[in-house]
Amino acid sequence: QVQLVESGGGLVQPGGSLRLSCAASGSIVAINIMGWYRQATGKERELVARITRISTNYTDSVKGRFTISRDGAENTWYLQMNSLKPEDTAVYYCHANIYTYRDGSIYYWGQGTQVTVSS
Prior knowledge:
Structural class: mainly beta
Distance between the termini: 40 Å
Order of helices and strands: EEEEEEEEEEE
Number of strands: 11
Helix content: under 10%
Oligomer: single chain
Number of helices: 0
Strand content: over 45%
């Protein structure tokens, strides 16, 4: 089975930076879409960023501050977060569309990592 594990969260002051990583494991044939979502307390989960073979997209609130990237040699992707704001505080989840021979192409979620931006 496929498993996504994210890491890199923590407590930072406003203006600080963090880099989140997500590692996918299992009988993976291909990862078609890699992304990051976040969910703040009392709010709906929202898309932060995603990357495909041909494009990268960001929600407006993080443009210019966050960068999503993928490791070309491994099933790993990252979210570099700069100029963090208190409004970025949330649990961040990695998310991916992954193809396996057993299950075809479906979506998977990581377990979440807490990012807290506070002075």
